[in-house]
From TrEMBL:
<dbReference type="InterPro" id="IPR025483">
    <property type="entry name" value="Lipase_euk"/>
</dbReference>
<keyword id="KW-0442">Lipid degradation</keyword>
<protein>
    <recommendedName>
        <fullName>Lipase</fullName>
    </recommendedName>
</protein>
<dbReference type="InterPro" id="IPR029058">
    <property type="entry name" value="AB_hydrolase_fold"/>
</dbReference>
<comment type="similarity">
    <text>Belongs to the AB hydrolase superfamily. Lipase family.</text>
</comment>
<keyword id="KW-0443">Lipid metabolism</keyword>
<feature type="signal peptide">
    <location>
        <begin position="1"/>
        <end position="21"/>
    </location>
</feature>
<dbReference type="Pfam" id="PF04083">
    <property type="entry name" value="Abhydro_lipase"/>
</dbReference>
<feature type="domain" description="Partial AB-hydrolase lipase">
    <location>
        <begin position="42"/>
        <end position="100"/>
    </location>
</feature>
<keyword id="KW-0732">Signal</keyword>
<keyword id="KW-0378">Hydrolase</keyword>
<dbReference type="InterPro" id="IPR006693">
    <property type="entry name" value="AB_hydrolase_lipase"/>
</dbReference>
């Protein structure tokens, strides 16, 4: 392990030297200016739906983009439709909810089923790259982890929906979108504005994930090393991170020929055109600190706030020598929850979902609904051609039964 660590440090050192040798601030600034959101025009209105763009600011200054599909394609009144907030996972943005055909994309299926659909885009993704005071090429912009999505982004999205509709919202999260929801619910954040939640490929505990690429990334302390060298932004399309990934993929036991499978597990039901469109639009950047936090979750086997690595730093941030735990047993027992997970999911493994369900064992009878889809992997839950019949229709029934 120590030998591998030295190898990676040496690789990173060489990489940083080469990056800074060719560093051009003008190029970085020019290519990190966020363009106005065009998700509605690119993915939604082309199918005949109305779509509205919103911007909302967090208390710590991030300007976030939100899209709204207020009604279905056939029209009808948009008055008093029940809102649903969709929250994407890591390294993607809200476009993943509308990337399939209208008949296969959850956002548009919900709109056609009578819901008022809101699509969130968390900080750092292409539609939410702006800040009141910081540029995205400034390392301070990327000084956040998923703790900040719990405290800032998610409550801001929920408040926007409530302010615009005057109603509690249903919630759909995928992957990291489930983690921040569970953490938020456990701390009672905006819980009074949540009607119910559907969690797809739920992520809370990560000790048993089977993706070789993810395990090696977490176990190698790669995030901490890149943080030391000042790579605050983790952008898979950038030269530094791309080289990191290539180095990981070169390690024994990891086959990245099919990168999506190497990361998420063997998805059963993705068609080629959807994968091509996905790869043209994703992945999206996140912060290196966010990856470090996820790596801590993998290595420590518990769910807690970001560990700053020393007693002194943790005391300064939390008043305790260790970061506080997120206690999922504190999630209100009467909050209706729908969990759907897959037998082939390499990130949200069945063992880790069982651990999550154990923490929810005291949930009120009839308020916790669990679906297991044997053949689904991580991406099938949002992009799978059979997701509508197997999962999405179940979500619609679940939401419709909440009065």
């Amino acid at each position: 392990m120590l030998h591998r660590l030295f190898m990676i440090v040496g690789f990173v050192t060489t990489l940083i030297i080469s990056v800074f040798a060719s560093y051009n601030p003008a190029f970085v600034a020019e290519n990190n200016v966020a363009a106005p959101s065009d998700m509605c025009a690119t993915f939604v209105t082309i199918h005949g739906y109305k779509c509205h763009e919103y911007e909302v600011s967090t208390d710590d200054g991030y300007i976030l983009s939100v899209q709204r599909i207020p009604q279905g394609r056939v029209g009808g009144s948009s008055h008093n439709r029940q809102p649903v907030l969709l929250q994407h996972g890591i390294l993607v943005d809200g476009a993943t909810w509308v990337m399939n055909s209208a008949e296969q994309s959850l956002a548009m299926i919900l709109a056609d089923s009578g819901f008022d659909v809101w699509i969130a885009n968390t900080r750092g993704t292409r539609y939410s790259l702006r800040h009141r005071n910081l540029h995205s090429y400034n390392s301070d912009y990327w000084n956040w982890s998923w703790d900040d999505l719990v405290v800032q982004d998610l409550p801001t999205f929920v408040n926007l929906v409530y302010k615009q509709t005057g109603q509690k919202t249903h919630y759909v999260g995928h992957s990291l979108g489930t983690l921040i929801a569970l953490a938020s619910f456990s701390e009672g954040r905006r819980i009074d504005k949540i009607k119910s939640a559907a969690l797809l490929s739920p992520i809370a505990y990560l000790s048993h994930m089977t993706t070789a690429l993810g395990v090696v990334t977490a176990r190698s302390f790669l995030g901490e090393i890149t943080t030391i060298f000042g790579l605050a932004e983790f952008n898979p399309t950038s030269a530094p991170v791309s080289m990191f990934v290539k180095a990981l993929c070169a390690q024994r036991g990891i086959n990245c020929y099919d990168f999506l499978t190497a990361l998420t597990g063997k998805n059963c039901c993705l068609n080629a055109s959807t994968v091509d469109l996905f790869l043209k639009n994703e992945p999206q950047p996140t912060s290196t600190k966010n990856f470090v936090h996820l790596a801590q979750t993998v290595r420590d086997g518990i769910l807690r706030k970001y560990d700053y690595g020393s007693f002194i730093s943790n005391l300064a941030h939390y008043g305790t020598v260790k970061p506080p735990l997120y206690n999922l047993a504190n999630i209100p027992r009467d909050l209706p929850l729908f969990l759907s997970y897959g037998g082939r999911d390499a990130l949200s493994s069945t063992k880790d979902v069982e651990t999550l369900l154990d923490h929810l064992k005291n949930h009120d009878v009839g308020k916790l609904h669990v679906q297991y889809v044997k053949d689904f992997a991580h991406a099938d839950f949002i992009l799978g051609t059979t997701a509508k019949d197997i999962v999405f229709n179940q979500i619609i029934t679940f939401f419709s039964n909440q009065h």
